[in-house]
Amino acid sequence: MIFSTVASKVPRRVTNTRQCNRLLAQLRRPSSRQTTRSMVVMTRRQASAIMLKQPNPISTSLPKTYTAAAQRNHSSFATFTEDENAIRETARLWAQTSLLPKVRSMDDDAKLDPDIVQELFDYGFMGMEISEEHGGADMSFTMACIVVEEIARVDPSVAILVDIHNTLTNNAVRFWGSDELKNKWLPRLATDCASSFCLSEASSGTDAFSMQSRATKIEESGGYVINGTKLWISNAKEAGVFLVFANLDPSKGYKGISAFMIDANAPGIEVGKPEHKLGLKASSTCPVTFEDVHVDAADLLGEEGLGYKYCINILNEGRIGIAAQQVGIAKGCMDIALPYINER
């Protein structure tokens, strides 16, 4: 997670992909490790200079006349801070130079390239709002959505991973996790451990709170045993941890639902065969079965019986991330369509 300052190293214009790759290597491995906050000091002008002469440049998102009017009348929606513009250009640069060449092969193979997943961590895209204390970027929710948008502009399959990881799992742990849970999982979530959000089941899709998954408390140890099957779980193949919702007390209905952080390597977990989807093929969508999976008491998220509240609140954030993804997809379509219109 190393967007360190490289202002003195950034050329005014990078005229080929090889130069871009060299610059990204400098961004990724600086001579002296600095905080993630400092890496965004690469200004918009510097990042734009990098993209200026690329073979397939990204078109500007809005006409200048529209932008000017928006700044006058709707500044809160149309303008961004210097840091936000810098992180946008950095994400855009990475997506164009590192991600784009691998999009077709990942789609054909129906799986994410492990090197791409690792680069997401290396560049800090997987710990956007996690504090520096826990190894994260300590940035804003807006910045996280900007990164999701720019990655979706090139490959929405990768954007799904970034979105769910940042807006759902990371934030759930940040908002409601105990200090022990935060110290255990946030450093890993920021640096090397992808995550999945396990809510949906065969009998509880739109009515998620009618779930059949059960959590049984072990009175002697204070831990829990989880049983149940979750369906349509995004990123299941890549996940190192699952945020799982299960009912601890069915007699209370949805008020018995609790949430748990469960290591993907725990005995009793089986990730099934990925679904064959019409699109987003590189993103794994799988059933996940939990059979007598033991969970430590410390891996309970928040309080017993409040899982439904956590779910409702965190999904509100996740939906904004999905909206950012859709904006990115639309812009990506325009990036392809507009040059073709001018050429035909």
TrEMBL record:
Residues 196-293 form the Acyl-CoA oxidase/dehydrogenase middle domain. Its cofactor is FAD. GO terms for biological process: fatty acid metabolic process. It comes from the Eukaryota. One of its GO terms (molecular function) is short-chain 2-methyl fatty acyl-CoA dehydrogenase activity. Residues 81-191 form the Acyl-CoA dehydrogenase/oxidase N-terminal domain. It holds the Pfam family Acyl-CoA_dh_N. Pathway: Lipid metabolism; mitochondrial fatty acid beta-oxidation; Amino-acid degradation; L-isoleucine degradation. This is short-chain 2-methylacyl-CoA dehydrogenase.
